């Protein structure tokens, strides 16, 4: 059994498991402390998005990790795929997705936050274990994937994920990168990105995998390459 997940605080409902875990970390909680919840009222994803899931439908967890590795978000995504198996893939940097005819649907979201200067991080994971897409707002249904299991399987999935995380956290960085590359959902595909995307200012190129530090390598239309450190990346529709 994994050493991660002890001690554990489980809440019937909370605003954000990451916020609760952060407060515990600041107070000195040890490595491996776990916060879980049956419902989040203000769950957060990357880029300031909300994480929406009905009660008792998803694994909602946040781990305190002391001396976290630099590739923590990528490690976490690989560990989630270890547990989800099947056709789960990773959309850079750490969204776990399933591909279908209309694009990519999100199975799990990962949010790593921390204080590097104090040597700790909070690893938040939301994984749709028993979610039924029809329970989601209409505009999100086609973009939502699920393991399709029952609510009583959330706890076994949690235990399996903690074991997978502990194994992956102990691996060499090169092993992590190779495992991530084997699950890359974007490689070879046309993508768009940009810091002012809401104003329609997007850059375009072709994803070519990740480099040795986890940055996304993109081939540019006019030749040459660039690397992306963070941000939102979209698949371009075929002409």
Topology overview:
Layout: E1 8-11, H1 17-26, E2 34-37, E3 58-66, H2 72-84, E4 88-91, E5 95-100, E6 103-115, E7 120-128, H3 154-169, H4 173-182, E8 190-196, E9 201-210, E10 216-219, E11 225-228, E12 233-235
Parallel strand pairs: 1-2
Antiparallel strand pairs: 2-3, 3-7, 4-5, 5-6, 6-7, 8-9, 8-12, 9-10, 10-11
Helix pairs in contact: 2-3, 2-4
In words, what does this structure look like?
The chain has 239 residues and is α+β, with helices and mostly antiparallel strands. It folds into two domains: 8-182, 2-Layer Sandwich (BirA Bifunctional Protein, domain 2), CATH 3.30.930; 190-235, Roll (SH3 type barrels), CATH 2.30.30. 21% of the residues lie in helices and 32% in strands. The protein is built from four helices and twelve strands. The chain has helices at residues 17-26, 72-84, 154-169, 173-182; strands at residues 8-11, 34-37, 58-66, 88-91, 95-100, 103-115, 120-128, 190-196, 201-210, 216-219, 225-228, 233-235. The strands form two sheets. The chain has a seven-stranded mixed sheet with strand order 1-2-3-7-6-5-4, with helices on both faces. The protein has a five-stranded antiparallel sheet with strand order 11-10-9-8-12, with no helix packed on it. The longest helix is centred in the C-terminal third of the chain and has 16 residues, at 154-169. It starts with 7 loop residues before the first strand and ends with a strand. The mean pLDDT is 88.
């Amino acid at each position: 059994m994994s050493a991660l997940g002890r001690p554990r605080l489980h809440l019937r409902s909370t605003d954000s498991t990451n916020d609760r875990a952060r407060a515990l970390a600041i107070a000195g909680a040890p490595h491996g402390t776990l916060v879980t919840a049956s419902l989040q009222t203000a769950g957060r994803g990357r880029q300031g998005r909300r994480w929406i899931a009905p009660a008792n439908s998803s694994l909602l967890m946040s781990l305190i990790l002391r001396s976290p590795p630099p590739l923590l978000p990528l490690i976490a995504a690989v560990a989630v795929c270890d547990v989800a198996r099947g056709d789960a893939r990773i959309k850079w940097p750490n969204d776990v997705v399933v591909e279908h005819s209309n694009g990519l649907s999100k199975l799990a979201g990962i949010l790593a936050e921390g204080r590097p200067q104090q040597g700790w991080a909070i690893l938040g994971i939301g994984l749709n274990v028993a979610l039924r897409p029809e329970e989601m707002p209409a505009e999100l249904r086609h973009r939502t994937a699920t393991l399709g299991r029952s609510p009583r399987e959330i706890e076994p999935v949690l235990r399996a994920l903690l074991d997978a995380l502990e194994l992956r956290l102990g691996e060499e960085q090169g092993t992590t990168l190779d495992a991530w590359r084997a699950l890359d959902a974007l490689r070879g595909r046309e993508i768009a990105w940009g810091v002012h995307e809401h104003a329609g200012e997007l850059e375009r190129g072709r994803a070519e995998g990740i480099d040795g530090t986890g940055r996304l390598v993109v081939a540019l239309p006019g030749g040459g390459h660039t690397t992306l450190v963070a941000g939102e990346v979209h698949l371009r529709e075929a002409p």
